[in-house]
């Protein structure tokens, strides 16, 4: 085999290996990608079925209840336009309270209840996750245009 053919063969093998590695990286990235959705998007069915995503907004005042086992909680997240019931089993962050901003990560169950695997709460009086703040601002604007 001529040196020129060997070089083309090596370049071809390198391109195939590079393409395979790129495909593996993109597949792993896609599996770990988690999108943020608002309660309005969840209510309208614009969320992935069977995939993990985040939903955020304000914890509806008076909606926080603990199950008998003491480890499970139920609450409702709202963007002031729509609400999403959430079930979470585990310890909540210390700053998690009614009427405060929160983001839950998990998946939507067949019954319409969001089953969270992780719950995040705001960490000071002025902080709210940017996605949740944008969602609430959009919901307020939509409500104002409808009135």
TrEMBL record:
<feature type="binding site" description="covalent">
    <location>
        <position position="123"/>
    </location>
    <ligand>
        <name>heme</name>
    </ligand>
</feature>
<feature type="topological domain" description="Extracellular">
    <location>
        <begin position="29"/>
        <end position="147"/>
    </location>
</feature>
<keyword id="KW-0201">Cytochrome c-type biogenesis</keyword>
<protein>
    <recommendedName>
        <fullName>Cytochrome c-type biogenesis protein CcmE</fullName>
    </recommendedName>
</protein>
<keyword id="KW-0408">Iron</keyword>
<keyword id="KW-0479">Metal-binding</keyword>
<keyword id="KW-0735">Signal-anchor</keyword>
<dbReference type="InterPro" id="IPR036127">
    <property type="entry name" value="CcmE-like_sf"/>
</dbReference>
<keyword id="KW-1003">Cell membrane</keyword>
<dbReference type="InterPro" id="IPR004329">
    <property type="entry name" value="CcmE"/>
</dbReference>
<keyword id="KW-0812">Transmembrane</keyword>
<keyword id="KW-1133">Transmembrane helix</keyword>
<dbReference type="InterPro" id="IPR012340">
    <property type="entry name" value="NA-bd_OB-fold"/>
</dbReference>
<keyword id="KW-0472">Membrane</keyword>
<comment type="similarity">
    <text>Belongs to the CcmE/CycJ family.</text>
</comment>
<keyword id="KW-0349">Heme</keyword>
<dbReference type="Pfam" id="PF03100">
    <property type="entry name" value="CcmE"/>
</dbReference>
<comment type="function">
    <text>Heme chaperone required for the biogenesis of c-type cytochromes. Transiently binds heme delivered by CcmC and transfers the heme to apo-cytochromes in a process facilitated by CcmF and CcmH.</text>
</comment>
<feature type="binding site" description="axial binding residue">
    <location>
        <position position="127"/>
    </location>
    <ligand>
        <name>heme</name>
    </ligand>
</feature>
<feature type="topological domain" description="Cytoplasmic">
    <location>
        <begin position="1"/>
        <end position="7"/>
    </location>
</feature>
């Amino acid at each position: 085999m001529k040196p020129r053919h060997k070089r083309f063969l090596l370049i071809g093998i390198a391109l195939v290996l590079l393409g395979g590695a790129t495909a593996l990286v993109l597949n792993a990235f896609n599996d770990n990608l988690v999108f943020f959705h608002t309660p309005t998007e969840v209510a309208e069915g614009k969320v992935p079925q069977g995939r993990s995503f985040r939903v955020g907004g304000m914890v509806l005042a008076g909606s926080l209840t603990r199950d008998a086992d003491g480890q499970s909680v139920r609450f409702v997240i709202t963007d002031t336009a729509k609400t999403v019931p959430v079930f979470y089993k585990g310890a909540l962050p210390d700053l998690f309270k009614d009427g405060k901003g929160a983001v839950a990560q998990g998946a939507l169950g067949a019954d319409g209840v969001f089953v969270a695997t992780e719950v995040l709460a705001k960490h000071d009086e002025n902080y709210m996750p940017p996605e949740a703040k944008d969602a609430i601002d959009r919901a307020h604007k939509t409500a104002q245009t409808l009135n």
